[in-house]
Amino acid sequence: MTVSAFDEMTGSGADVRQGYERVKTWIGETEVEQLRARQHEAELLFRRIGITFSVYGDAEAEERIIPFDIVPRVLTRAEWDRLSAGLVQRVKALNAFLGDIYGKGEVVRAGVIPEDLVYGNPYYRPEMAGVAVPHGVYVPIAGIDIVRVDADTFYVLEDNARTPSGVSYMLENREVMMRLLPDLCQTHRIAPVENYPDELLATLRSLAPASAPGFPTVALLTPGPFNSAYYEHSFLADKLGVELVEGSDLFVSENVVYMRTTQGPRRVDVLYRRLDDDFLDPLVFRPDSVLGVPGLLSAYRAGNIALANAVGTGVADDKAVYTYMPEIVRFYLGEEPILQNVPTWRCREPDALTYVLENMADLVVKEVSGSGGYGMLVGPKSDVATIAAFRDKVKANPTNYIAQPTLALSTCPTFVGEGVAPRHVDLRPFVLTGSDRIRIVPGGLTRVALKEGSLVVNSSQGGGTKDTWVVD
Amino acid sequence: MLSRTADTLYWLARYVERAENTARILDAALRLATLPAGYGGSSNEWESAVAATGSEDLFRSLYGEATQATVVDFLAFSPDNPSSIRNCLEIARHNARAVRTALTIEMWEAINGAWLEMKRFDGATMTRPRLGEFLSFVKEASLRFDGSAYRTMLRNDAFDFFRIGVYLERADSTARILDVKSHILLPEGQSVGGGLDYFQWSAILRSVSALTSYHWVYRESLRPRLVADLLILRREMPRSLTSCYENATRHLDYLARTYGRQGPSQRLARASYARLESMEITTVFATGMHAFLVDFIGENNRLGQAISEQYLV
Predict the structure, then answer these.
(1) Domain residue limits at B62
(2) Are residues B245 and B312 in the same domain?
(3) Rounded to whole angstroms, how far apart are CA atoms B37 and B196?
(4) Are A262 and B1 a contacting pair at CB < 8 A?
(5) For A286-305, b where at least 16 C-beta lie within 10 A, e where not — what string?
(6) In chain B, which among 123-182 make CB contacts under 8 A with chain A?
(7) CB B255 within 8 A of CB B311
(8) Domain end residue (candidates: B153, B187, B220)
(9) ipTM score of the complex?
(10) What pLDDT band is residue A425 in, cutting at 50, 70 and 90?
(11) Which of A84, A142, A320, A368 could tie A431 with a disulfide, CB 3.0–4.6 Å?
(12) What crossing angle do the helices spanning B128-152 and B3-33 adopt, rounded to 10°?
């Protein structure tokens, strides 16, 4: 099946869309050799700065760099404003939803979403029921994955409400672009992204619990140097000017969290944790976790520390709950959703299941709890045997799956070695919610599927990234 | 700062310093080994090189005879020697990555660059000229890293821990290098006789980059007493034990001032420094050079232990 995709630069024809004029000229005027040289320089730069990530189960390539593409992805201010309004709405709804399901549960009682999807969800944390999280903010940092199918239609593909990553690439990509292609950058009015760390710090500080001193101490909790996103953790801690701590650097005494310093214990008030719920506190969650902090949860429940993101937010980015997001937006905000979901079949519903099983070759089928491009089937790209095997898995446990049409994700011109060619892209903007307001830095991380025709943009599956420009 | 960060910085400094010291020891051994026997070349040069790093037992458990090939492999490339140059740079880079936020960009690029460059050298196919290239690379990497730290780091407690690591490691290395050669530093007072000793001594000085300094300080030909004096007691000699302790003590005092309190490590360092400062080289020879150095190495280790207990855990 071939889908003719909407191209971000040319639309559906040979024209050039607004915002892309000078990028198109630049591509046309630059020799392939030149592009290749720039591309090579970019890679050296990334390698030298040490912007790497690790791939699980790949000992050979302990540290790889995510391929960076030098052709920018451009959004006009008008496009961005609409997206941005949609993101604010979506994240407000996510926070309201989480506060409700760990509180009164009105959304369930009103029949908006089936009870078992919430309370039976593997990411639902009963330990959080009735707990007042500081300032009622559950998802201070959200990464909302957006795909585009035509000039006017943006879909939300996923809400990442746990510990979304990738923002360091958004920042570094811009740095690298400005170093490598200053002339191209200067001919555009590109909205800056470099204030992201300031916005993040303001957001985190605003969440300090009432018991914190006037100038709260923020720290970033990492699983350590072997984690795939460690570079990002250290990068962000550095930009924020906060300590990068591991579980062993923290301890809890009388429900207050401290870090071990050369001057003795120091109280921590806000913890930006990049460690999954399961590993946070061995006394409550996985007892074998050596990455967490014993007693952290009781300090949290006692209201002595803010966690960003809160514990138990996984329910909201579960792929089954995702399908109810339009209803959730309407329920809490009384507004029509600005951003649509990708049309989705819930395999838990018999009619949908029948349809999915019959049309699997044309669909993308996903595990509701999978992430990173794992546990999913791209029908049109799979052979008969793979599809048959996947069909058995779905039949055995339909509740665990959803299916979506193979979307013609928009393409963006990308340097691919022999020249510039269209490749499919998505977009992950980062939305920050503080106790005071919501902050979004214009742009986000554009991920690109470098293989011709591929729709999988995940870095663990050979995807690359691009700088994302919002231009006036 | 986090105790773990301080600990990691301290060891990062020690490992980079250790890599450089080991490269210098190998350099000196190579120089001696290429001389004909009559001019100071000796077959046990390679054993001395291993001894100077304090890892004879491990060496013997891994290899048979100490030859150029086995010793170069052991000290420079072996994954089984935790202090081989390759491992030092690996560990240093791992530590750097773990505390990246405490390093400046220049320091990170220096250590990450060295680590990437290291991959270009393959122990199994080492030729003599290639080895020379390798040793220069290690020395330059250390100089670059140290220089970056010196020029770019904030002068705060992180810098103090970093420098303390450098000076403790350097003191340990100087003491060991001297100890290995302590037998030829005797007898006291005699001028160096034939070619053999001369080359041995100049090699010691060269291994700590002090041959020219010797001539500047003493303006006479090599004498055992003076070599010992230079490397143990002379304040102006940056490798000397006195100089290392002067600096380590100063940085420990800075820490005490920053934190508003002092502890066992300040007292230990000051006591050792005071002893070195008031000592004459004749006393060292009277006690016996070997006994003196063994004592010193023990003392230095105890200071390391005290620092660790006071700040790093």
Answers:
(1) 1-153
(2) yes
(3) 8
(4) yes
(5) eeebebbbbbbbbbbbebbb
(6) 157, 161
(7) yes
(8) B153
(9) 0.76
(10) very high
(11) A142
(12) 150
